[in-house]
Fold each of these.
Amino acid sequence: MQTLAQHLTSQAVNDSLSQLILTLADTSKAISHAVRHGALAGVLGATEQENVQGETQKKLDIITNDMLKDALKADGTVRGLASEEEDHVVEVSQNGQYLVCFDPLDGSSNIDINSLVGTIFSILPATKGPAPAGVLTETSFLQSGRAQLAAGYVLYGPSTMLALTTGQGVQLFTLHPETNEFLLTNAAMSISPDTQEFAINMSNQRFWEAPMQTYIADLLLGKIGPREKSFNMRWIAAMVGDVHRVLSRGGIFTYPTDNKDPKKPYKLRLMYEANPMAFLVEQAGGKASTGYETILDIQPTHIHQRVAVILGSSNEVDACLSYHGIDY
Ligand code: AHG
Ligand code: MN
Ligand code: MN
Ligand code: MN
């Protein structure tokens, strides 16, 4: 089986990008180790701090953020980073070629119940911005998802897995517990165009927009409804887990617009959740939209910007979009 390093060579990924991906992968091995030790390492539970989104930070949110930040600072290829757990962008190295956006611990509400969590990352080119020479600003990060050079996630599940795209399909690697190497276990992840499985937090139903209310109601009608087939539902409460299932066996995942808190109509973050996942999903043959706009085409305005997300099996995403008045 190919190692991650061998795979990057076989894909002719350039040396500096390969180095950066290997650094992220190595850090995820250390995160996997910390997650596995759980209560034994004293890493569970919450802190008294809040992040920029107003979420109480778990100890592991901060530990994993610091692990990634330290590794990226030592790497030498990184110009700057943006993280869910950092209020502002962090300047790393004047000579770095890349910007890294990451969600160090996705699904952090799962950590204290020993359930699925992961890490999500997106790599952008460090373009020369309008700022004075040598100054890194948030503006440098505000590139559409189409500019991503690579994206991926690591899932700390029963086995630790890395799903990666460098724009040449999606490859899945499994961490060998004894050799500590990521080995290629699926060379071409592919999302089936049709599905009978959906993922949504149903407890928000009354807060959704009318098109999503009607779409989900029709799925629930099963064979007697307009969709004329039965649907099953799954919700892991960690986007990494739900998207991994979609990449593995198809499905539609959505965290739609809601009016529960009018100041926060969306939950998921564009730069380090929606964009990397949309890149992976498109590379595996699926689709990713807000309901009105293709996620990868959004021009970001803020590093912590939130968006509605509807992604997965292409025909099912199209079906959902048709309820939003968009015909494909
Ligand atoms: P994070 O733990 O990084 O803040 O992200 C949590 C996100 C996402 O992973 C998941 O799909 C969603 O929040 C779960 O939301 P609910 O609590 O509404 O289920
Ligand atoms: Mn969070
Ligand atoms: Mn997250
Ligand atoms: Mn997170």
Note: Helices lie at 4-10, 15-37, 59-75, 210-221, 239-249, 270-283, 314-323.
Amino acid sequence: MNSIAHDAIALAIIGGTGLYKLAELHDVETRQPVTRYGAPSGPIRIGTLAGRRVAFLARHGEGHSVPPHKINYRANLAALEAVGARRVLALNTVGGITAHYGPRTLGCPEQIIDYTWGRISTLCEEEGTDVLHVDFGDPYTPALRAEILAAASRAGVAVVDGGCYGATQGPRLETKAEIARMRRDGCDLVGMTGMPEAGLAREFGLDYACLAIVANWAAGAGPDPDEQITLQEVLANVEAAGAGLGPLLHAL
Ligand code: HPA
């Protein structure tokens, strides 16, 4: 992995669908670390936000060219670590399943169920690497979750505290039956990128928490069970919900 000279990075932010850059960053410099796991989804933009250096990476690439199952999650986290990040705020665009998570809601989930398959989900993949069995009972770092919720409260931004994120394979959206099963399993939110990112962050020893942006009702979950989910709706709702993001980040 490259060793890069850097100012201390207070926070790394990984942006999801509809969040390809952070307007709040000033004095931006760009880094392109290549890691032992390969190249990240795109450049890392490091800028100043509320007086602190913050690193930003677009999870799908800045032109949204990398689908969820093709993202090199290990390289993304390794690249953020290489520029000095120790704490990661993951912004994930999701569908809402249960009543508290309607479109345009911001949520800070505390649990995950992983339905993805075939993704490299560990740093132990290569032969000869140490076998890790990290504790993952609380998949998001409780202290970082608490900071996010406190910042939201200071900024007057409504964020739903808790809930379970169900990570699906994508890139297609789910069937109504899949969402009904996820609801029975206890999922409140559904997205395609929450895993293996959170598990890898734990293996890297990074603090990691998710701020989920609800873009739509998941299939069959809303008041009109036959409503179709469109990319237009997703992007419009992410943009609307994103209005709370700037104040929250300034307060964090
Ligand atoms: N399902 C999975 N991922 C998503 C959704 C959804 O309904 N909306 C935004 N990301």
Note: The pocket of hypoxanthine is lined by residues 93-95, 168, 173-174, 190-192, 215-216, 218, 229, 234 (CB under 6 Å).
